[in-house]
Amino acid sequence: MNKNWRRMHVAACLAAVLLLSAACSSKNDSNGAGGAAANAGDSTDGSASNAMAKKLKITAFEGYWGKVQPSDSPGVKAIDEKFNIDYKPEFVPMEQAQQKIAVLMASGSQPDILGLEGVDSNFIKWAKQGAFLPLNDYIDKYPELKQIPKSIWDAVSVDGKIYGIPQYFHIKYMNSAIIRKDWLDKLGLQMPTNYDELLQVSKAFTDQDPDGNGKKDTYGFATSKGIDWNNRMGVYYDIGAWYHKNDQGQLIPGIISDDANLDRLKFMQEAYAAGAVPKDWPVMEYNDAKQIFWSGKAGIYYEGLPGSATQWKLLSENAPDAEVVPLPPFQAPDGTQGQPGMSGYYTMKTLSAKLKDDPDKIDRILTMVDQFMKFTPFDQRNPQNADFDWKQGGVDKGYTYANGVADLSTDTDAKQAARPTTFFTVQEWAPSDEALELDKGLPVPIEAAYAKAVVDLWSKPNFVYIDPFNSIHSDVFNEKFGALYDKMMDGETKIILGQEPLSYFDTLTADFLKNGGQAIIDDVNKQFEALGATGSWK
């Protein structure tokens, strides 16, 4: 799959969660509202008190999506007090994390807790080298860890040993196409149901002044270099999904599926020729393309849940009457109509194997994980819930509360620094995606309406494709796919710009297979067969 694109989605969602609520508890944190609140989550059980009697130093290192706050912030002090530790977290921007972690591991400076973005060749190598503590014997002792599905534990295991603590991330609500319904209505257009109709709508959004300002200053859709979201209109057309099969019956990555990609590329080629997308998109940065839509100058883009309150506020300021709805996936030639689900987790925590002779520290860390992982239903996210209030930094310190809604959308450095979960980034583990209630408590009306429509759409039966690729990890894929993907996108860009014909896609596919793509397919399918993993719909 296109890991960069999916990373972009989860990164955006994590950033949004920080600003909205504790739904995914990405950085829901706190400088407890007084000593009582700070200790509210502690057990009064005598044995638990004894377990916390000894003060321990705990070190941690991980990448962070967002602004890194000082390690001596109130949120860290609250963690120290609650768990009787001397907590020493170190964060770096996520873009720098992989390189810096490799240096740490090579230098022998591994911390007690190491946060990783996911399973890759380095994780597998380090696990096999004995760098991480196997967790199999500990999980059943902690109720929140115990509820994590076996399929997800399997995804962070190597040779049957669990080496990572996965962080919850919803399977549903992945980034997918959105459209300005108010523009459709103004121009008397219907919701597009295939790429031909999408092309006509894109042209109309460009040529027929949908924002009514008398200027030709709008586009059908926005994208950026690397082809960003690729105008994927459902699983069948998703370049990252392992859904299609080759002539040998092997599942293949969608990036080389002929029929689906030719439809998508033909649309983008004709849309570009018609001026329905900015001419400079091949060199445009992601944030610049995003700005075109959220400033009200494009009619089609992509978004998931949760979104960014900042973006929705920007759109509402530029287009107060905007109505944004999900653009439903197209019905595929095989009769399916749905979106790919995600893996059910994103990022993980590993513990150093050096802790094996320090059971007190292992227990202290896993106790912290378990308490931060406890899910808070929407109607319990309030100052009266001492655990929630502590995590969020205390009312009027880490968040505000009004009209029955805890609001983290007005974010500041001071609020982030107040929250313990800014510094101990463990996601609350929801019992289901629906339990997140991501369509509630949203401060921007157009976002609230959009979120409800998204939840309704994703609630349809047989709408979510469970990709078997999420159940395995392939060293061959991790080693080879990134470079092959970049070459495919370079070639697709030439097709879209009219520098190569659509038939050039056959050349791209042949090169992909010859230069390592077939080896990827063979290895991935071998693992599918070993696990009995197949794609399914739910």
TrEMBL record:
Keywords: Signal. It comes from the Bacteria. SUPFAM superfamilies: Periplasmic binding protein-like II (SSF53850). Gene3D superfamilies: Periplasmic binding protein-like II. Residues 1-22 form the signal peptide. This is Extracellular solute-binding protein. It comes from Paenibacillus lycopersici.
